[in-house]
Amino acid sequence: MKNYNLIFIFLFFSFVSYSQSTVNEQMGYWDNPSHWTTTIAGNITGSLLNIGNRNVYINGTTVADMDLYINNTALVINPQDTLIISGYLYGDNFSYIENNGTLIVLGDVYTNWFTSIVNNGKFVSTGNVGGWNWGSDPGDSYVYGNRAGVNPVGAEGNESDLQSSDPDLYNYVESMVTILPVELLSFNVSTTNEKVLVQWSTANEKNNDYFAVLRSKDATNWEIVGEVPGNGITSNIINYSFEDDPINSGVYYYRIKQVDFNGNSEQFSVKRVEYNTNSVEIYPNPFMDHLAINKSFDNLIIFDESGKIQFESDKNFSGGLEIQTNNWKKGLYIVKIISGEGTITKKIFK
Fold this sequence. Notes:
By secondary structure, the protein is mainly beta. It has helices at 8-18, 159-165, 167-177; strands spanning 27-29, 43-45, 48-52, 55-58, 61-64, 67-71, 74-77, 82-85, 89-92, 96-99, 102-105, 109-111, 116-119, 122-125, 129-130, 133-136, 140-143, 147-148, 156-157, 183-192, 195-203, 205-216, 223-234, 238-244, 250-260, 265-267, 271-275, 282-283, 290-293, 299-304, 309-313, 321-324, 332-339, 342-349. It has 3 domains: 30-177; 183-275, Immunoglobulin-like; 281-349, Sandwich (Immunoglobulin-like), CATH 2.60.40.10. Residues 282-348 form the Secretion system C-terminal sorting domain. Residues 1-19 form the signal peptide.
């Protein structure tokens, strides 16, 4: 996930131009003690911030760069101050949320078990909102997704309404929504078992919906050949893979496109691979007591390093072959496979 450090200065001044200034003119992550007034900020576990049994007052513009769960807690946003939650907001067990400034949730919002909301300022959710018990809502609320059980008395709208009624706030939210949620650690493409194997790994995924695997013959015109589900929100290293089976031999180009739940996407670097439909896998290599060949063939010859024939078969093996090699000497061997597709030569070792 891309962090907010490099864009905080830009976001701060863009927000100041939108809504006067923040009370303390502070900006930063939730774990900075200057941005809240309580004895403990909360317990952070992975991508979840859990706050229970305390009162929290937001000072300045503060980013909770994770999901936020409050339990039996009063969360108060002071006038002219801002809380940005880069994930979902869940209120439970007699919690109380009072927004006197600006509350922006880049995800879903849900409240449960006598949790109430008082919105005196501006509220924006880019996800769905449900289960709310609104104590009062003289402020403005904008929900990009669906509403359930929400009956505000102030201005109510969706994404389009926010864009038309308050373009500065809309652009401010969009500047955060378009921050893409995945850090790519590695990306490799290779051939195996007559297929192209696409492998990649990620870290710190945030709202990651899925990956699209794209293929091209000229690195210009691309087609989607498959999709792999993402892992939503995680701070763990995740390994992904996808097998492609092009019809013809030749040079191919591959790239990965990541798509988040809001529909935003980014494409990663391009990898080149030479693919041969006549490819064959001989394993294990090096081998010990047996040798397997996964290629159908008409004729098979294995030579030792002196050129002497160690094994030969002129039978048609449509599903490959396994050879016992207990009595073979250690060293280099040359495998020659002849089929209707041509001749393949491989080196193997014992």
